[in-house]
Amino acid sequence: MRPDPEFNPQILTRSLLRRRRQGALATLMVEGGAPYCSLVNVASDVDGAPILLISRLAIHTRNILADPRVSLMLDERAAGDPLEGARIMVTGRAHEVTGNAASRPRLRYLNAHPDAESFVSFPDFGFFRVRIDAVHLVAGFGRIVDLPPEQVLTDLAGCDRLVEAEPDIIAHMNAEHLDAMKLYATKLAGVASTDEDWRCTGCDPDGIDLANGAETVRIAFPERVRDPAALRGVLRRLADEARARGH
């Protein structure tokens, strides 16, 4: 079979990691080790690693605390036959993030799931980050690829200033640039909606994440961005490109 030049498994996998908000989580039962699968809400850390907010009262949390090995399936949820859409199975280990280290996962999770604000502080809930060991991508006939973590996670080396500024960047975009985010979604991502309620939920060296209710898009940057100054330049260029496509 001839390779498809338009199929980039790394870009597709990174997009699914960033965009999907729900997934099927598989853990191992404490009693007997049988597989146990549950539906969970998901967010992504700055590097793309999955973040979970789960209760210690849940079976899957008790399983993870006994054995951190997990699998997490995220799918495209495309119209029509669900088996024709792309999906990934992430294998790795889930570990609770506590103390000051939980501030960034908390921010990113609440940006993706603002309704969780009502229970995020309950004492039985905690943030768990999945350390990815491998990803299995199924994107259609002849499009099945296994990827190591270094090919799907974003390298944060040299990007400390951008990572530290992310909360301010998100707040600024949502306060001052709703028009630009609508352009990004409709002209660059091809979303049909004309609704102006697009907001920024995350920013990293490789791209920016936008959401409008349950609808999400990922805008990949044309080059790696290391600091806020470089980000401003790239976002202006993307806005100019989006406006040009509107004519």
General description of the model:
The structure is a single chain. By secondary structure, this protein is an alpha+beta fold. The protein folds into two domains: 9-151, Pnp Oxidase, Chain A (Roll); 160-245, Split barrel-like (Alpha-Beta Barrel). It is built from six helices and eleven strands. α5 packs across α6 (228-245). The longest helix is centred in the C-terminal third of the chain and has 18 residues, at 228-245. The termini are far apart.
Shape, per Cα inertia axes: globular
Helix/strand class: alpha+beta
Count of DSSP strands: 11
Count of spatially separate domains: 2
Largest sheet: 8 strands, antiparallel
Features:
31% strand; alpha+beta; Split barrel-like; 247 residues; Pnp Oxidase, Chain A; globular; single chain
Draw up the topology in text.
Blueprint: H1 9-19, E1 22-28, E2 35-41, E3 43-44, E4 50-55, H2 59-66, E5 69-75, E6 87-97, H3 103-112, E7 125-138, E8 144-147, H4 160-176, H5 178-188, E9 199-204, E10 207-212, E11 215-220, H6 228-245
Antiparallel strand pairs: 1-2, 1-5, 3-4, 4-7, 5-6, 6-7, 7-8, 9-10, 10-11
In short:
The chain has 247 residues and is α+β, with helices and mostly antiparallel strands. The chain has helices at residues 9-19, 59-66, 103-112, 160-176, 178-188, 228-245; strands spanning 22-28, 35-41, 43-44, 50-55, 69-75, 87-97, 125-138, 144-147, 199-204, 207-212, 215-220. It folds into 2 domains: 9-151, Electron Transport, Fmn-binding Protein, Chain A (Pnp Oxidase, Chain A, Roll), CATH 2.30.110.10; 160-245, PNP-oxidase-like (Split barrel-like).
